[in-house]
Target: 2-dehydro-3-deoxygalactonokinase
Amino acid sequence: MNTPLIGLDWGSTRLRAYRFDEVGGVADTRALPWGSRQLPQGGFEEAFARAVEGWPHAPVLACGMVGSRGGWREVPYLDTPCRLEALGRSLTAIDAPDGRTVHIVPGLRDPAGPDVMRGEETQVAGVLARMPGLAGNARLLMPGTHSKWVRVRDDAVTGFTTLMTGELFALLRGHSVLGAGLPEGGADDEAFARGVAAAQASGAAGGLSRLFSTRALMLEGALAPASVADFLSGLLIGDELRMALAAGWATPDAPVLVVGEDALCARYRQAAPAFGLSLQSTPGATAASGLWRVAAAAGLLHGLSHA
Amino acid sequence: MNTPLIGLDWGSTRLRAYRFDEVGGVADTRALPWGSRQLPQGGFEEAFARAVEGWPHAPVLACGMVGSRGGWREVPYLDTPCRLEALGRSLTAIDAPDGRTVHIVPGLRDPAGPDVMRGEETQVAGVLARMPGLAGNARLLMPGTHSKWVRVRDDAVTGFTTLMTGELFALLRGHSVLGAGLPEGGADDEAFARGVAAAQASGAAGGLSRLFSTRALMLEGALAPASVADFLSGLLIGDELRMALAAGWATPDAPVLVVGEDALCARYRQAAPAFGLSLQSTPGATAASGLWRVAAAAGLLHGLSHA
Model:
């Protein structure tokens, strides 16, 4: 079987490698625990060699924190507004020890923030490759450690912002007076909903103004210790939605596409109605679709036709 | 010299012991690193014995986390609205091994939050003992790990809220992608002012919506790594002021008294004008004054006259 492209979605904590078939389908996937912040002995070169071991010498395209400061090579950002087609024309090439060339997708920078992203630009390209009808005008949410809210118009990213919900949750859950040392709970949807409601009720002050109520509720027995994490999750996700609305990244009348891990997206969809927001799911494996699309725009798919 | 009272201001990370003279002045002070979360071998009893070693067998009054769950003894909260005189009528007595009796001041609970405090209620009593003209109507800010915003009317605490600014700062500075591993800086007032301005410019979305700009500014060289902590401090303190205004704990036309450590209070006063707020300093040693006042209300000062 022919392999026209190998794609790498290389973040700060993990690496996903894709071997593509001739029509842009994923023939093989490898998931490795080596992100830019946690690498094997031998660093990026060794992680790369293991990720593509035994795969044909096809062109390699990589996106994500691999191109950040502290990554394999720091590659420049493109400023917004940025047409998605432009990503493929601004690749940076690295020579790997095995003779392969690894092309790295640039990140995006929104000068208005300023704000930056690496990897999500490729996911946006993948979403729009799968849902081309949206390329004219879309709003996307990519929840996670650093949630991204993205505006697309005329097949260009016109702006974006980062809200640090996932990282704040991890800090508060693991290291704060609110969450440290508490028992693990199951998924407590009711506690999550209470957190969302607290964020919604916080009004203009915002969910962070209600943070300490978590402790007071637990002390007086109104919130079980094992449910604190879910309450906090609801409070922070709710506050993310509030902030996105207040800053104009979402409006109640325009649907937002949610791109990411199923369980996390489900929580955002659960929280959305309290804020009058409509969040819509998107097809998975958007990074792979995006890598294929960027490779096509870059002319890396030698002799293959592409959409 | 007669010692009518020993006071203990006993928080989660430290213990301050005061030996009072006949007129409520502090004749001697001891500062010990033993809070309710970090105690010597022998626990509370041993810490207490060392704190009062060699001092006369006077009545002992303690406030703060010593009365919390996980403290020496969990003592109840009084609900707001709560007259400050009521604190002295709700003490809990513990018998120490040396035969002394330690009386613990109750904390306060605001059922509207819910929210809780332990120790600050005694500081409020101390501030108003020193500035009795304010007891009719005052707003206080006690900045710190868990900042408290307090409303006083007719010598009663009518409500309060906790904003976790100090703890969020410590988490973001020490453990987040924004601050972990960065060099220590000096006090960079200009970076602090930039953080305050970013919080102010965030409008209704709030300062947390601008958190990730810290990283983007640093990556592009617009914020020196050694100045990140000050920028974050300005952003978070600014956002605390924004939240307090949005939730009605402060109004631009009513001055707020700031009670706490000088350097921290100075930063809050530096940030206040951007939000149209007027923050006024208060005399120091408010916990000692409060302990004396509560002891007087409790009738612990046998035979002494008091204001």
Remarks:
- The longest strand of chain A covers residues 156-163.
- Residues 78 and 200 of chain A are 36 Å apart (CA to CA).
